């Protein structure tokens, strides 16, 4: 234990490293700026190297500080989670950030079931594709589209692979007498014609010659917008069928072929390793894995 530096100094370092500001760290810790500077000096003497590079009107982490900050931050998060768990208390608010497609096409429709099962947990949902610093940000969990499970102290759970297939309105299909083979789609208008998923699906279907040249340009980007346009008969959209199961079942959208293509990306539930035992995160994780199981069951291995 004698080799450990004073906890007050470590707390000061974690706060200054997070804010990159002695003033903001002092306000958070209820200390004077001079006191925070003194604690950092104590820690730097113990470490034997500068932890911050002091510049006019700004500071930055030194090489030593950069190596030390993630472990110190993770340690404090682990302590917070441990005390919350030992008290047997569930934080009353779960903050979720999700990519718009998953938020609109699945989560918004099903999140009420989680709240029925856990009425003591209020939920705040943010719909955004922005990358987040999940260690320091205000969100507890994130749902993101990723090419592979993330590392760097993050825990991830596969929710659904971002496989894709062409969907269109039945009326648009009937406008050319029906769609019975993949190259029939080349005779129809296509939404977001420069979408790389189109090239990949037609290649998987063995249909050469797809090109965006000569097609009206559009860029809706988000699957929920593309799905709405497809239901309106505006064109063929390359979508993840699992997100549109109700629309397909009701006949608002047609999936003419079972062939699914993939670019290797998938939707993951992500949160910091240091918070994996937080009761509210554990409750949401277990519910999400169970609730999304039917989505995964419909997809090929």
From TrEMBL:
Family (UniProt): Belongs to the LysR transcriptional regulatory family.
Keywords: DNA-binding, Transcription, Transcription regulation
Name of protein: LysR family transcriptional regulator
Domain HTH lysR-type: 5-62
GO MF entries: DNA-binding transcription factor activity; sequence-specific DNA binding
A GO BP annotation: DNA-templated transcription
Pfam family, one: HTH_1
InterPro entries, alphabetized: LysR-type_TF_proteobact-type (IPR058163), LysR_HTH_N (IPR000847), LysR_subst-bd (IPR005119), WH-like_DNA-bd_sf (IPR036388), WH_DNA-bd_sf (IPR036390)
């Amino acid at each position: 234990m004698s080799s450990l530096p004073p906890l007050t100094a470590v707390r000061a370092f974690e706060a200054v490293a997070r804010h990159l500001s002695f003033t903001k760290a002092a306000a958070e810790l209820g200390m004077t700026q001079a006191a925070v500077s003194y604690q950092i000096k104590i820690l730097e003497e113990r470490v034997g190297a500068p932890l911050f590079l002091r510049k006019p009107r700004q500071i930055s982490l030194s090489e030593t500080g950069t190596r030390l900050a993630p472990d110190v931050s993770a340690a404090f998060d682990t302590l917070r989670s441990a005390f919350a768990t030992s008290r047997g208390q569930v934080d009353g608010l779960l903050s979720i950030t999700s990519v718009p497609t998953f938020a609109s096409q699945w989560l918004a429709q099903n999140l009420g079931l989680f709240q029925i099962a856990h009425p003591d947990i209020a939920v705040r949902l943010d719909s955004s594709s922005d990358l987040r610093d999940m260690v320091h940000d205000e969100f507890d969990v994130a749902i993101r589209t990723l090419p592979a499970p993330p590392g760097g102290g993050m825990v991830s759970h596969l929710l659904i692979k971002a496989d894709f297939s062409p969907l269109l309105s039945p009326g648009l299909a009937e406008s050319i007498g029906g769609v019975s083979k993949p190259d029939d789609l080349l005779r129809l208008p296509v939404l977001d014609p420069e979408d790389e998923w189109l090239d990949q699906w037609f290649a998987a279907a063995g249909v050469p010659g797809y090109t965006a040249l000569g097609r009206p340009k559009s860029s809706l980007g988000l699957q929920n917008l593309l799905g709405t346009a497809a239901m309106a008969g505006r064109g063929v959209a390359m979508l993840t069928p699992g997100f549109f199961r109700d629309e397909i079942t009701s006949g608002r959208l047609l999936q003419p072929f079972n062939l699914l293509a993939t670019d290797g990306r998938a939707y993951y539930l992500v949160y910091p390793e240091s918070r994996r035992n937080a009761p509210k995160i554990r409750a949401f994780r277990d519910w999400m894995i169970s609730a999304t199981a039917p989505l995964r069951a419909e997809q090929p291995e």
